[in-house]
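Encode chain A's predicted structure.
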Amino acid sequence: MKKFESVKELERFYNKFKGQSLKEIRDYIHQEYPTISLSTNKGIVGQVLEALIGNAPNSDPNPDVQYLNVELKVLPLRKIGDKVQPKERSKIKSLNYNTILDQKWHTSDVKAKMNKMLFLLYEQPTGKTYKDWQDLTFKGTMFYELEKEKPDVVQEDWKGIYYKVKSEIAHEISEGDSMILGASTSGAGKIIKYGNNKEAKQRSYSLKHSYLKVFYSEKIRKQKFTSIGIPKSIEPQDYILNILNKKLKGKGLKNVVDKYNVKFSESAKSSFPILINKVLNIKDKAEIRELAENNIIIKTVPIKPNGKPWEAMSFPKFSLVDLIYEDWNGDKNSQSIFRSIISQGFIFLPVIKEKYKPKGAKNYKYMDWSTWVIGQPVYWKASEKELKTIMEEWKKAKNIVEKEVKVEDVSWGEGTRQNNNLLKMSETKIIHIRPHTSNSKNLDIPYQLYTEGRVSICWQSFWLNKDFVESVIRK
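Encoded structure for chain A:
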Protein backbone atom coordinates (compact mmCIF):
# COMPACT_ATOMS: atom_id res chain seq x y z
CA MET A 1 0.00 0.00 0.00
CA LYS A 2 1.27 3.47 -0.89
CA LYS A 3 2.04 5.88 1.96
CA PHE A 4 1.11 9.55 1.97
CA GLU A 5 2.22 12.32 4.31
CA SER A 6 -1.11 14.16 4.26
CA VAL A 7 -4.63 14.17 2.86
CA LYS A 8 -3.50 16.78 0.31
CA GLU A 9 -0.82 14.41 -0.96
CA LEU A 10 -3.38 11.58 -1.13
CA GLU A 11 -5.70 13.81 -3.17
CA ARG A 12 -2.87 14.88 -5.51
CA PHE A 13 -2.08 11.25 -6.24
CA TYR A 14 -5.71 10.37 -7.03
CA ASN A 15 -6.20 13.46 -9.16
CA LYS A 16 -3.38 12.37 -11.48
CA PHE A 17 -5.89 9.83 -12.79
CA LYS A 18 -8.70 12.35 -13.28
CA GLY A 19 -10.36 11.91 -16.68
CA GLN A 20 -9.23 8.30 -17.12
CA SER A 21 -11.67 5.45 -17.66
CA LEU A 22 -11.92 2.76 -15.00
CA LYS A 23 -10.51 0.32 -17.52
CA GLU A 24 -7.34 2.43 -17.83
CA ILE A 25 -7.12 2.62 -14.04
CA ARG A 26 -7.66 -1.14 -13.70
CA ASP A 27 -4.84 -1.76 -16.21
CA TYR A 28 -2.54 0.45 -14.11
CA ILE A 29 -3.48 -1.56 -10.99
CA HIS A 30 -2.64 -4.85 -12.74
CA GLN A 31 0.85 -3.52 -13.46
CA GLU A 32 1.46 -1.94 -10.03
CA TYR A 33 -0.26 -4.55 -7.84
CA PRO A 34 -0.43 -7.84 -9.75
CA THR A 35 -1.49 -9.75 -6.63
CA ILE A 36 -4.67 -7.71 -6.08
CA SER A 37 -7.72 -9.57 -7.38
CA LEU A 38 -10.80 -7.54 -8.35
CA SER A 39 -14.29 -8.99 -8.72
CA THR A 40 -16.82 -7.76 -11.28
CA ASN A 41 -19.86 -7.43 -9.01
CA LYS A 42 -21.66 -4.14 -8.38
CA GLY A 43 -18.91 -3.08 -5.95
CA ILE A 44 -16.31 -3.13 -8.71
CA VAL A 45 -15.96 0.68 -8.95
CA GLY A 46 -15.06 0.98 -5.28
CA GLN A 47 -12.63 -1.92 -5.52
CA VAL A 48 -10.83 -0.39 -8.51
CA LEU A 49 -10.52 3.12 -7.05
CA GLU A 50 -9.39 1.90 -3.63
CA ALA A 51 -6.88 -0.48 -5.25
CA LEU A 52 -5.18 2.56 -6.83
CA ILE A 53 -3.32 3.05 -3.54
CA GLY A 54 -2.74 -0.67 -3.02
CA ASN A 55 -5.85 -1.49 -0.95
CA ALA A 56 -7.05 -5.00 -1.69
CA PRO A 57 -10.79 -5.71 -1.18
CA ASN A 58 -11.41 -6.35 2.53
CA SER A 59 -13.98 -6.11 5.32
CA ASP A 60 -11.74 -4.28 7.82
CA PRO A 61 -13.92 -1.83 9.85
CA ASN A 62 -10.98 0.56 10.35
CA PRO A 63 -10.50 3.63 8.10
CA ASP A 64 -9.30 2.73 4.59
CA VAL A 65 -6.22 4.96 4.97
CA GLN A 66 -5.73 4.17 8.62
CA TYR A 67 -2.58 6.21 9.33
CA LEU A 68 -4.38 9.37 8.05
CA ASN A 69 -7.72 8.34 9.61
CA VAL A 70 -9.38 8.78 6.20
CA GLU A 71 -12.35 6.78 4.94
CA LEU A 72 -12.58 6.34 1.15
CA LYS A 73 -16.08 6.58 -0.36
CA VAL A 74 -16.96 6.25 -4.03
CA LEU A 75 -19.67 8.64 -5.21
CA PRO A 76 -21.39 8.36 -8.61
CA LEU A 77 -22.24 11.56 -10.48
CA ARG A 78 -24.91 11.94 -13.12
CA LYS A 79 -26.15 14.72 -15.36
CA ILE A 80 -29.77 15.33 -14.38
CA GLY A 81 -31.39 18.10 -16.36
CA ASP A 82 -28.57 20.56 -17.06
CA LYS A 83 -26.43 19.81 -13.99
CA VAL A 84 -23.92 17.13 -13.08
CA GLN A 85 -24.56 16.22 -9.44
CA PRO A 86 -24.27 13.31 -6.99
CA LYS A 87 -26.56 10.54 -8.21
CA GLU A 88 -27.70 9.34 -4.78
CA ARG A 89 -27.13 9.49 -1.04
CA SER A 90 -23.89 8.04 0.36
CA LYS A 91 -24.21 5.18 2.83
CA ILE A 92 -21.67 5.32 5.66
CA LYS A 93 -22.28 2.22 7.78
CA SER A 94 -25.08 0.05 9.11
CA LEU A 95 -27.18 1.25 12.05
CA ASN A 96 -27.19 -1.24 14.90
CA TYR A 97 -30.31 -0.73 17.04
CA ASN A 98 -28.87 -2.92 19.80
CA THR A 99 -25.56 -1.11 20.29
CA ILE A 100 -26.43 2.55 19.60
CA LEU A 101 -27.82 2.96 23.13
CA ASP A 102 -24.41 2.11 24.59
CA GLN A 103 -22.80 4.97 22.65
CA LYS A 104 -22.33 8.71 23.00
CA TRP A 105 -22.08 10.84 19.86
CA HIS A 106 -18.41 11.75 20.32
CA THR A 107 -17.36 8.11 20.67
CA SER A 108 -19.93 6.62 18.28
CA ASP A 109 -18.86 4.31 15.48
CA VAL A 110 -20.56 6.45 12.81
CA LYS A 111 -18.73 9.62 13.91
CA ALA A 112 -15.45 7.71 13.68
CA LYS A 113 -16.32 6.85 10.07
CA MET A 114 -17.39 10.42 9.25
CA ASN A 115 -14.49 12.38 10.75
CA LYS A 116 -12.58 12.45 7.44
CA MET A 117 -13.98 11.07 4.21
CA LEU A 118 -12.39 11.34 0.78
CA PHE A 119 -15.03 10.97 -1.91
CA LEU A 120 -13.76 9.38 -5.13
CA LEU A 121 -15.99 10.78 -7.84
CA TYR A 122 -16.94 9.03 -11.06
CA GLU A 123 -19.49 9.84 -13.72
CA GLN A 124 -22.21 7.31 -14.47
CA PRO A 125 -24.06 8.59 -17.56
CA THR A 126 -27.77 7.97 -18.12
CA GLY A 127 -28.27 4.40 -19.28
CA LYS A 128 -24.94 3.14 -17.87
CA THR A 129 -24.80 0.64 -14.99
CA TYR A 130 -22.08 -1.04 -12.95
CA LYS A 131 -21.85 -3.60 -15.76
CA ASP A 132 -20.43 -0.80 -17.93
CA TRP A 133 -17.82 -0.01 -15.29
CA GLN A 134 -14.90 -0.06 -17.74
CA ASP A 135 -16.42 2.91 -19.62
CA LEU A 136 -17.07 5.03 -16.52
CA THR A 137 -14.80 8.04 -16.00
CA PHE A 138 -12.97 9.02 -12.80
CA LYS A 139 -13.72 12.68 -12.03
CA GLY A 140 -11.35 13.38 -9.14
CA THR A 141 -11.78 13.79 -5.39
CA MET A 142 -13.87 15.72 -2.87
CA PHE A 143 -12.74 15.91 0.77
CA TYR A 144 -15.22 16.00 3.65
CA GLU A 145 -14.12 16.85 7.19
CA LEU A 146 -16.87 16.62 9.79
CA GLU A 147 -15.53 19.33 12.12
CA LYS A 148 -15.73 21.88 9.28
CA GLU A 149 -19.17 20.86 7.97
CA LYS A 150 -21.87 21.76 10.53
CA PRO A 151 -20.90 19.11 13.13
CA ASP A 152 -23.58 20.44 15.52
CA VAL A 153 -26.31 19.71 12.93
CA VAL A 154 -24.95 16.21 12.31
CA GLN A 155 -24.87 15.58 16.06
CA GLU A 156 -28.50 16.65 16.39
CA ASP A 157 -29.44 14.35 13.50
CA TRP A 158 -27.74 11.45 15.29
CA LYS A 159 -29.48 12.29 18.55
CA GLY A 160 -32.84 12.18 16.78
CA ILE A 161 -32.08 8.64 15.58
CA TYR A 162 -30.76 7.68 19.04
CA TYR A 163 -33.90 8.86 20.86
CA LYS A 164 -36.26 7.05 18.50
CA VAL A 165 -34.36 3.81 19.13
CA LYS A 166 -34.27 4.51 22.88
CA SER A 167 -38.02 5.19 22.87
CA GLU A 168 -38.47 1.91 20.96
CA ILE A 169 -40.08 3.62 17.96
CA ALA A 170 -37.29 2.86 15.50
CA HIS A 171 -39.98 1.82 13.00
CA GLU A 172 -40.87 5.53 12.82
CA ILE A 173 -37.39 6.63 11.74
CA SER A 174 -37.49 8.54 8.46
CA GLU A 175 -34.84 10.29 6.35
CA GLY A 176 -37.13 13.30 6.49
CA ASP A 177 -36.34 13.62 10.22
CA SER A 178 -32.86 15.01 9.61
CA MET A 179 -30.88 17.64 7.70
CA ILE A 180 -27.56 15.93 6.92
CA LEU A 181 -27.19 12.51 8.55
CA GLY A 182 -30.07 10.24 7.59
CA ALA A 183 -30.99 6.66 8.40
CA SER A 184 -31.94 5.07 5.10
CA THR A 185 -33.40 1.62 4.53
CA SER A 186 -30.64 -0.87 3.88
CA GLY A 187 -30.09 -4.26 2.31
CA ALA A 188 -33.31 -6.11 1.55
CA GLY A 189 -35.15 -4.07 4.17
CA LYS A 190 -35.35 -7.07 6.47
CA ILE A 191 -36.91 -6.74 9.92
CA ILE A 192 -34.51 -6.42 12.88
CA LYS A 193 -35.48 -7.22 16.47
CA TYR A 194 -34.23 -4.87 19.21
CA GLY A 195 -35.04 -3.66 22.74
CA ASN A 196 -38.11 -5.17 24.39
CA ASN A 197 -38.90 -7.48 21.47
CA LYS A 198 -39.51 -4.49 19.15
CA GLU A 199 -39.06 -4.63 15.38
CA ALA A 200 -37.86 -2.16 12.74
CA LYS A 201 -36.52 -2.26 9.20
CA GLN A 202 -32.78 -2.63 8.74
CA ARG A 203 -31.21 0.82 8.16
CA SER A 204 -27.86 2.45 7.44
CA TYR A 205 -26.45 5.85 8.33
CA SER A 206 -26.19 7.98 5.18
CA LEU A 207 -25.24 11.45 4.09
CA LYS A 208 -28.51 12.65 2.60
CA HIS A 209 -28.78 13.20 -1.14
CA SER A 210 -29.98 16.81 -0.68
CA TYR A 211 -26.94 17.61 1.47
CA LEU A 212 -24.50 15.98 -0.94
CA LYS A 213 -25.89 17.97 -3.86
CA VAL A 214 -25.25 21.25 -2.02
CA PHE A 215 -21.82 20.11 -0.75
CA TYR A 216 -20.76 19.05 -4.27
CA SER A 217 -22.10 22.26 -5.83
CA GLU A 218 -20.07 24.41 -3.44
CA LYS A 219 -16.87 22.38 -3.40
CA ILE A 220 -16.62 21.28 -7.03
CA ARG A 221 -18.90 23.46 -9.16
CA LYS A 222 -18.11 26.55 -7.03
CA GLN A 223 -21.80 27.40 -7.03
CA LYS A 224 -22.72 30.45 -4.97
CA PHE A 225 -25.55 30.03 -2.49
CA THR A 226 -27.28 32.95 -0.81
CA SER A 227 -29.32 32.78 2.38
CA ILE A 228 -32.52 34.81 2.51
CA GLY A 229 -32.46 34.82 6.30
CA ILE A 230 -35.46 32.64 7.09
CA PRO A 231 -36.13 32.56 10.85
CA LYS A 232 -35.66 29.09 12.37
CA SER A 233 -39.24 29.11 13.62
CA ILE A 234 -40.63 29.29 10.05
CA GLU A 235 -40.60 26.50 7.48
CA PRO A 236 -38.69 27.63 4.33
CA GLN A 237 -41.59 26.81 2.01
CA ASP A 238 -44.02 28.84 4.14
CA TYR A 239 -41.69 31.83 4.19
CA ILE A 240 -41.21 31.79 0.41
CA LEU A 241 -44.89 31.13 -0.33
CA ASN A 242 -45.79 34.15 1.77
CA ILE A 243 -43.47 36.42 -0.28
CA LEU A 244 -44.57 35.01 -3.63
CA ASN A 245 -48.24 35.39 -2.67
CA LYS A 246 -47.77 39.02 -1.66
CA LYS A 247 -45.64 40.04 -4.63
CA LEU A 248 -46.84 37.84 -7.50
CA LYS A 249 -50.29 36.33 -6.96
CA GLY A 250 -52.82 37.79 -9.36
CA LYS A 251 -50.28 40.11 -11.02
CA GLY A 252 -49.79 40.45 -14.75
CA LEU A 253 -46.39 39.06 -15.73
CA LYS A 254 -45.58 42.19 -17.78
CA ASN A 255 -46.11 44.43 -14.74
CA VAL A 256 -43.91 42.24 -12.54
CA VAL A 257 -41.14 42.05 -15.17
CA ASP A 258 -41.16 45.85 -15.54
CA LYS A 259 -41.19 46.41 -11.78
CA TYR A 260 -38.14 44.20 -11.19
CA ASN A 261 -36.35 45.27 -14.39
CA VAL A 262 -35.93 41.74 -15.78
CA LYS A 263 -35.16 40.98 -19.42
CA PHE A 264 -37.82 38.30 -20.05
CA SER A 265 -38.03 35.84 -22.92
CA GLU A 266 -40.60 33.04 -23.07
CA SER A 267 -38.06 30.85 -24.88
CA ALA A 268 -35.35 31.27 -22.20
CA LYS A 269 -35.56 28.73 -19.37
CA SER A 270 -33.66 31.12 -17.09
CA SER A 271 -36.26 33.91 -17.29
CA PHE A 272 -38.53 32.71 -14.49
CA PRO A 273 -35.69 31.70 -12.11
CA ILE A 274 -34.11 35.15 -12.56
CA LEU A 275 -37.46 36.85 -11.96
CA ILE A 276 -38.11 34.79 -8.82
CA ASN A 277 -34.62 35.62 -7.51
CA LYS A 278 -35.32 39.32 -8.06
CA VAL A 279 -38.61 39.03 -6.16
CA LEU A 280 -36.78 37.28 -3.30
CA ASN A 281 -33.95 39.86 -3.46
CA ILE A 282 -31.34 37.32 -4.56
CA LYS A 283 -28.61 37.80 -7.18
CA ASP A 284 -29.54 36.54 -10.67
CA LYS A 285 -27.39 33.40 -10.76
CA ALA A 286 -27.22 32.59 -7.06
CA GLU A 287 -29.10 29.65 -5.61
CA ILE A 288 -31.17 29.95 -2.46
CA ARG A 289 -29.46 28.04 0.33
CA GLU A 290 -32.62 27.31 2.31
CA LEU A 291 -34.30 25.78 -0.75
CA ALA A 292 -31.27 23.69 -1.74
CA GLU A 293 -30.61 22.39 1.78
CA ASN A 294 -34.28 21.48 2.28
CA ASN A 295 -34.52 19.88 -1.17
CA ILE A 296 -37.20 22.26 -2.46
CA ILE A 297 -37.47 23.42 -6.06
CA ILE A 298 -39.76 25.97 -7.72
CA LYS A 299 -41.54 24.91 -10.92
CA THR A 300 -43.83 27.02 -13.10
CA VAL A 301 -47.07 25.37 -14.24
CA PRO A 302 -48.87 26.69 -17.36
CA ILE A 303 -52.62 26.67 -16.63
CA LYS A 304 -55.82 27.70 -18.42
CA PRO A 305 -57.98 30.55 -17.11
CA ASN A 306 -60.27 27.87 -15.57
CA GLY A 307 -57.35 26.54 -13.48
CA LYS A 308 -56.72 23.35 -15.44
CA PRO A 309 -53.09 22.65 -16.45
CA TRP A 310 -52.39 22.84 -20.15
CA GLU A 311 -50.18 19.77 -19.93
CA ALA A 312 -48.69 17.16 -17.66
CA MET A 313 -45.53 18.10 -15.74
CA SER A 314 -42.27 16.66 -17.05
CA PHE A 315 -39.14 15.57 -15.20
CA PRO A 316 -35.60 14.99 -16.57
CA LYS A 317 -35.09 12.34 -19.23
CA PHE A 318 -33.90 8.87 -18.34
CA SER A 319 -32.91 5.72 -20.18
CA LEU A 320 -35.22 2.73 -19.94
CA VAL A 321 -32.10 0.75 -19.01
CA ASP A 322 -31.99 2.73 -15.76
CA LEU A 323 -35.31 1.22 -14.69
CA ILE A 324 -33.99 -2.30 -15.19
CA TYR A 325 -30.97 -1.83 -12.93
CA GLU A 326 -32.55 0.41 -10.32
CA ASP A 327 -34.46 -0.52 -7.19
CA TRP A 328 -36.97 1.89 -5.62
CA ASN A 329 -35.22 1.83 -2.22
CA GLY A 330 -31.77 0.91 -3.43
CA ASP A 331 -32.08 -2.38 -1.55
CA LYS A 332 -30.68 -4.61 -4.28
CA ASN A 333 -29.32 -2.20 -6.89
CA SER A 334 -28.90 1.54 -7.31
CA GLN A 335 -31.63 3.64 -5.73
CA SER A 336 -34.24 4.90 -8.17
CA ILE A 337 -33.27 8.29 -9.60
CA PHE A 338 -36.93 9.16 -9.93
CA ARG A 339 -37.54 8.42 -6.26
CA SER A 340 -34.89 11.03 -5.39
CA ILE A 341 -36.55 13.55 -7.71
CA ILE A 342 -40.17 12.99 -6.67
CA SER A 343 -39.29 12.96 -2.94
CA GLN A 344 -38.30 16.62 -3.15
CA GLY A 345 -40.58 19.45 -2.07
CA PHE A 346 -42.07 21.53 -4.89
CA ILE A 347 -43.38 25.06 -4.98
CA PHE A 348 -45.68 25.15 -7.99
CA LEU A 349 -46.10 28.63 -9.47
CA PRO A 350 -49.14 28.59 -11.78
CA VAL A 351 -48.94 30.88 -14.82
CA ILE A 352 -52.30 31.59 -16.49
CA LYS A 353 -52.00 31.56 -20.28
CA GLU A 354 -54.45 31.52 -23.16
CA LYS A 355 -53.99 30.00 -26.59
CA TYR A 356 -54.98 31.08 -30.07
CA LYS A 357 -54.73 29.65 -33.56
CA PRO A 358 -52.61 31.76 -35.95
CA LYS A 359 -54.10 32.31 -39.35
CA GLY A 360 -53.28 29.40 -41.68
CA ALA A 361 -51.64 27.38 -38.86
CA LYS A 362 -52.60 23.82 -37.86
CA ASN A 363 -51.84 24.12 -34.17
CA TYR A 364 -52.72 26.50 -31.38
CA LYS A 365 -49.99 28.48 -29.59
CA TYR A 366 -49.76 30.52 -26.39
CA MET A 367 -50.66 34.19 -26.44
CA ASP A 368 -47.69 36.55 -26.03
CA TRP A 369 -46.11 36.39 -22.56
CA SER A 370 -47.16 39.99 -21.87
CA THR A 371 -50.72 38.67 -21.46
CA TRP A 372 -49.83 36.03 -18.88
CA VAL A 373 -51.01 36.29 -15.27
CA ILE A 374 -49.42 34.67 -12.21
CA GLY A 375 -51.69 32.46 -10.10
CA GLN A 376 -51.48 31.35 -6.47
CA PRO A 377 -48.30 29.42 -5.63
CA VAL A 378 -48.70 26.18 -3.68
CA TYR A 379 -46.31 23.80 -1.92
CA TRP A 380 -46.45 20.06 -2.51
CA LYS A 381 -44.40 17.22 -1.12
CA ALA A 382 -45.57 13.67 -1.73
CA SER A 383 -47.23 12.19 1.35
CA GLU A 384 -46.45 8.65 2.47
CA LYS A 385 -49.67 7.52 0.79
CA GLU A 386 -48.80 9.32 -2.46
CA LEU A 387 -45.24 7.97 -2.40
CA LYS A 388 -46.60 4.46 -2.02
CA THR A 389 -48.84 4.97 -5.08
CA ILE A 390 -45.93 6.44 -7.05
CA MET A 391 -43.73 3.49 -6.05
CA GLU A 392 -46.37 1.00 -7.24
CA GLU A 393 -46.75 2.83 -10.56
CA TRP A 394 -42.96 3.05 -10.95
CA LYS A 395 -42.73 -0.71 -10.39
CA LYS A 396 -45.37 -1.27 -13.09
CA ALA A 397 -43.22 0.80 -15.46
CA LYS A 398 -40.16 -1.23 -14.50
CA ASN A 399 -42.00 -4.49 -15.13
CA ILE A 400 -43.03 -3.38 -18.64
CA VAL A 401 -39.46 -2.39 -19.51
CA GLU A 402 -37.99 -5.62 -18.12
CA LYS A 403 -40.34 -7.64 -20.32
CA GLU A 404 -39.24 -5.49 -23.30
CA VAL A 405 -41.16 -2.50 -24.60
CA LYS A 406 -43.40 -3.02 -27.63
CA VAL A 407 -43.10 -0.24 -30.22
CA GLU A 408 -44.85 0.33 -33.53
CA ASP A 409 -45.00 3.19 -36.05
CA VAL A 410 -48.52 4.36 -36.89
CA SER A 411 -49.85 6.96 -39.30
CA TRP A 412 -50.13 10.44 -37.82
CA GLY A 413 -51.18 13.34 -40.00
CA GLU A 414 -48.89 13.44 -42.99
CA GLY A 415 -46.29 11.27 -41.30
CA THR A 416 -45.97 8.67 -38.58
CA ARG A 417 -45.48 8.50 -34.82
CA GLN A 418 -44.44 5.84 -32.35
CA ASN A 419 -46.93 3.96 -30.22
CA ASN A 420 -45.70 1.88 -27.27
CA ASN A 421 -46.99 0.03 -24.22
CA LEU A 422 -45.20 2.15 -21.61
CA LEU A 423 -47.08 3.40 -18.55
CA LYS A 424 -50.00 5.61 -19.72
CA MET A 425 -51.73 8.50 -17.95
CA SER A 426 -55.07 6.71 -18.42
CA GLU A 427 -53.74 3.74 -16.40
CA THR A 428 -52.40 5.61 -13.36
CA LYS A 429 -53.27 8.08 -10.62
CA ILE A 430 -50.08 10.14 -10.34
CA ILE A 431 -47.29 9.39 -12.86
CA HIS A 432 -46.86 8.13 -16.40
CA ILE A 433 -44.13 7.91 -19.05
CA ARG A 434 -44.01 9.97 -22.23
CA PRO A 435 -41.31 10.97 -24.73
CA HIS A 436 -38.87 13.61 -23.53
CA THR A 437 -38.30 14.80 -27.08
CA SER A 438 -40.50 15.79 -30.01
CA ASN A 439 -38.01 14.10 -32.36
CA SER A 440 -38.79 10.38 -32.50
CA LYS A 441 -35.37 9.79 -34.06
CA ASN A 442 -33.62 11.03 -30.89
CA LEU A 443 -33.18 7.46 -29.69
CA ASP A 444 -32.51 5.94 -26.28
CA ILE A 445 -29.33 4.25 -27.51
CA PRO A 446 -28.54 2.42 -24.22
CA TYR A 447 -31.92 0.62 -24.37
CA GLN A 448 -31.50 -0.10 -28.07
CA LEU A 449 -28.16 -1.76 -27.29
CA TYR A 450 -29.63 -3.59 -24.29
CA THR A 451 -32.32 -5.14 -26.52
CA GLU A 452 -29.70 -5.94 -29.19
CA GLY A 453 -31.43 -3.62 -31.64
CA ARG A 454 -34.91 -5.11 -31.24
CA VAL A 455 -36.37 -1.91 -29.74
CA SER A 456 -35.71 1.58 -31.10
CA ILE A 457 -37.49 4.15 -28.97
CA CYS A 458 -36.86 7.83 -28.25
CA TRP A 459 -35.77 9.18 -24.86
CA GLN A 460 -38.52 9.12 -22.24
CA SER A 461 -39.41 11.04 -19.07
CA PHE A 462 -41.67 10.51 -16.11
CA TRP A 463 -44.54 13.02 -15.98
CA LEU A 464 -47.02 14.02 -13.28
CA ASN A 465 -50.56 13.40 -14.55
CA LYS A 466 -52.55 16.51 -15.51
CA ASP A 467 -55.43 15.64 -13.19
CA PHE A 468 -53.05 15.16 -10.29
CA VAL A 469 -51.28 18.49 -10.91
CA GLU A 470 -54.69 20.17 -11.02
CA SER A 471 -55.68 18.60 -7.69
CA VAL A 472 -52.51 19.99 -6.09
CA ILE A 473 -52.96 23.48 -7.52
CA ARG A 474 -56.62 23.66 -6.49
CA LYS A 475 -55.68 23.04 -2.86
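Residues 7-219 form a domain with the ECO RV Endonuclease; Chain A fold (CATH 3.40.600.10).
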